[in-house]
Amino acid sequence: MEYLNNSSNSTHWKFTLEYQVALVSMYSIVFVGGIVSMALMINVLKSNILSVTTMAVLNLIAVHLLFLLTVPFRIYFYATNSWKLSRGLCRVVSGMIHAHMYIAFIFYVIILVIRYLNFFKRRDRVEFHRKLHALLASVAVWAVVLIGVLPPFAIKYGDSEDKMRGRMCFNFGGELEKGAVASLNYVIIAVVMLVTLPLACCQIWIFSQVLRKYKTSFSQQQEFWAQIKSLSFVLVMLLCFVPYHLFRIYYVSHHTSLQNENEVFLAVTAFSCLDMLTFMGRNAYGIRCEGCCLT
């Protein structure tokens, strides 16, 4: 990692060639794979629009699409090792990967909790009474995000770095030198871990119950493949989000020397955009289960 100056508050760095290649490759895969999976889901999501799970998946797709719009800017930055666009756009692109990760995390939790409730209560699905109710629920979630999170983010995120000189971007690690910001990071890490691990344990238990129930005929059961879909969401959380937050425990107090590594772990979170590819195989399983992958 090549430093342009030694100030901890205004450190600029350039990526080495190996990091450039790795990051450009990772985001290229995310961009192409994400666009393909979103396009395929347009045809697959012809399920009951009143289903709470279906609406959550639709909102999840919207989150992925918004993030994918910023990915070309990331590829440009990592490929050229410089940022010649506006500082404001840099802040938006930099912050979007965090917004994507946590909003997607919220919808993953909603989807899994609903599916677990369906399993324990032996219901096929949880539905809104009217399409208007489904729309209002989605608007409410987005309102909380846009009103409660976006304004403080737009005002404060990267504020201490805006006076930096140079043509680098995504270098907002200096924010972590503020005690309140560091503490908030630790709280977020704890919440993500305390939510993800119980959900994973619950999914493993449910999966074991389904296998025990159907024994050798499990592969012919709709319920089994429905749980495979739930398991795929859990795996996305474990493989894409958990590693980043485990790394961040150390990164918060050593951010000045781990900029490159932080960008790589952030890139791993972006692979959650490929989650919808897991929906493509429901007919390939030889089971016609209309809507069972979503409800």
TrEMBL record:
Domain G-protein coupled receptors family 1 profile: 33-279
Protein location: Membrane
Segments forming a coiled coil: none
InterPro entries per UniProt: GP183-like, GPCR_Rhodpsn, GPCR_Rhodpsn_7TM
Membrane protein topology class: Multi-pass membrane protein
Record-level Gene Ontology MF annotations: G protein-coupled receptor activity; oxysterol binding
Annotated TM spans: 20-45, 57-79, 99-120, 132-155, 186-207, 228-252, 264-281
Keyword rRNA-binding among record annotations: no
The protein's name in its UniProt record: G-protein coupled receptors family 1 profile domain-containing protein
Biological source species: Synaphobranchus kaupii
